[in-house]
Amino acid sequence: MDVGREDGGYDRVDAGSWTLRDEEARTFVSAGTRAVASLVRSSFGPNGMTSQIATEDLQGRPETVWTSDAGEILDAIERGGGFGHPVTALFVDAVDAMRRELGDGSTTAVLVGDALLGEGIDLVERGLHPGNVVVGYAMAAARAGVVLDSLAREIDPEDTAPLERVAATSMTGGLDATTRATYASRVAEAVRALAGSGDVDWVDADDAKVLAGPEAPGGRYRGLVVRRYPGPLDESEESVREFDWSTLDPVTDATVALVDEEIDFERTATSFGEGGDPGVVIESFEQWDAYTEGLDRRVAAVADHLAGMGVDVLVSQERLGDRERTAFEARGVAVVDEVKYPLADVYRLARATGGTVVDDLSELSPDRLGVAGSVTERRVGDEKWTFFDDCEGGVYTLVVDVETETASAEHERLLEDALEVTATAATDRQVLPGAGAPAMAVATDLREYATTVADVEQLAVEAFADAVESVPTALAENAGVDPLDAVPALRAEHATGEGPLDVGISAAGEPFDAWDAGVVEPRRLFSQALETANAVTEQLLTVDAVVHPGVDLGRFSPNPERE
Fold first, then answer.
1. Model confidence over 12-22: pLDDT tens digits?
2. Residue ranges of E strands in 181-309
3. Which helix or strand (DSSP H or E) is residue 520 part of?
4. Which long-range contacts does 367-370 make (Cβ < 8 Å, 24+ apart)?
5. N or C: which end of the chain has fewer CB within 10 A?
6. If DSSP codes are grouped into helix, strand and coil, which group holds residue 365?
7. Calpha distance 186→183 (Å, rounded)
8. Non-local CB neighbours of 47 within 8 Å, separated by 6+ positions
9. How far does CA 225 lie from the centroid of its chain?
10. In what order do the strands lie in the sheet with 396-402?
């Protein structure tokens, strides 16, 4: 390697100190994927364990995360700066893109991806060219699609029964059976409603919000529940004291105005006919008194205009001061401000009520107002919730009652993931039996298919089959049984049938009919996991050199504790 000098000449540098090649490079790459797989393997399936990760929150403050969700495990480690290894960063990014689209499937993609890379490297070490492995893997992936076509079953998004099974399967291991059944029913009803009210080709889970809290009024609301709380970035006692804990009086058939910018009352009042120059110069107490009197008139003008337009509730992303709030409420306009955690809520509320979000109240007109059948407020724990219910738009909120504040985040995550997964099933109208049944069906077919492949790619097809079996292997391990007994027993069950079977591994580690047991997942979940795993493997398997000038290759050291 040549390094330039200031005089324009070049010095020779030993490339060996800068580069890993061939076997060393493959070892370096496989170590990265193996490290990621080790983080999530024990969380897989109904018997998955919980991981404790010491990390940081989004504001950079120390945080401890307890979770059995692979996506959350990887997110938490990433927030804590745990992915310094370039291969792990690439691997996690590929899996994360799939998870954000589908809400699940991270563990399957990681396990299969790591296994595919390991099997592929073994073939390369035995003399097979990486290009032949990539071609063989592509042939196997295409064949897997044919198998899944045969195994998949059609569902009707108007039928809640299969949707309930999909939702319950996605929450297996995180909840007791009774709670899981209750949650699954609510998720299925919400997704069915979304399927009936939105685009017939796409069910948007973003139009369903989840809230959990102690003594929360559980149920499914047609509309949006907005949560507000003191000092989201400031947990001081002062912020709690200054927060407005009063609740508005219930309003029926409420006309709703929505604004997403701070309200400039001087400019807004001028556009409403109050007049005056919005530019202000204050040089004396008399001028200050004149200014405040003028501001009061301007606020009153805005309030009068909204009241005259028939507005019952003003929803603002930004906070309104006491002067403004008092003026609005005196004219019968209730104020729901600081609707910005999350920022998407004001736009969800617009879809729910049929209103339009404006940047400035001067842009407001009767045709931009929304309508909610009822608006009520109540305190839930350390938060104030505003219920915009009985709305005509296709937006829903699922509320669940939990015992403690600490359980709220975990239950919300489980329900949000279930909504995403169930919405995927309703959109695609195709489901598969779960519990590792698709993986074993694919592996069984690929071994038979490999005998028809004449060239060296046959070895890669067989390796793909072995890699896919990492899914039932992990399920068996986490069930506490010996995979050397459980996986061959499952393989034997599939070998006796004609075509792909619904047989997977139960929570007890034994073969069972997953479809009859109600263990069901969207077809796209497993298909996308295979596609993601194969794509990232193709990228990594063809690496024959790793150049690392000045890079510390030993930085990948996440060490989560498992309970």
1. 545 455 677 78
2. 208-214, 219-222, 224-228, 251-259
3. strand 520-522
4. 368/257, 369/255, 369/256, 369/257, 369/309, 369/310, 369/311, 370/255, 370/256, 370/257, 370/258
5. C
6. coil
7. 5
8. 173, 475, 478, 479, 480, 507
9. 20
10. 208-214, 396-402, 219-222
Can you give the pLDDT at residue 297? 83
Q: What is the DSSP string of 337-363?
A: ----SSTTHHHHHHHHHT--EESSGGG
List pLDDT tens digits, range 421-443.
999 999 999 999 999 999 999 99
Closest C-alpha among 377, 432, 380 to residue 405:
380
Contacts with 68 (C-beta within 8 Å, 6 or more apart), sequence order: 43, 48, 49, 50, 51, 173, 174
Q: Is the omega angle on the peptide bond into residue 162 within 30 degrees of 0, that is, cis?
A: no
Dig out the tokens for 86 from the structure: 């370039």
Cβ-in-10-Å burial (0-12, 13-18, 19+) of 305 comes to: buried
Helices (H) and strands (E) in the chain, counts: 18, 22
Domain residue extents for the chain: 19-153+432-562, 173-427
Other beta carbons within 10 angstroms of residue 198's beta carbon come to 17
Looking at residue 336, its amino acid is V
CB atoms within 10 A of CB 547: 12
The Cα 297–Cα 274 span in angstroms is 8
- Is pTM beyond 0.90 here? no
Q: What is the end-to-end Cα distance of the chain in Å, rounded?
A: 49
Average pLDDT estimate for 397-406? 87
Tell me which fold the domain 173-427 belongs to: GroEL (3.50.7)
Tens digit of each residue's pLDDT (9 = 90 or more) over 165-197: 999 998 887 688 899 999 999 999 999 998 877
Instruction: Say which residue the tokens 């107002």 belong to.
Output: 369
Sign of CA dihedral 298, 299, 300, 306: positive
Of 394, 397, 387, the closest CA to residue 256 belongs to 387
CB 66 within 8 A of CB 154: no
Q: Residue 218 has what DSSP assignment?
A: -
Q: What percent of the chain has pLDDT over 70?
A: 84
Q: Residue 326: which H helix or E strand, with range?
A: helix 322-330
Q: The dihedral of CA 536, 539, 545, 549: what is its sign?
A: negative
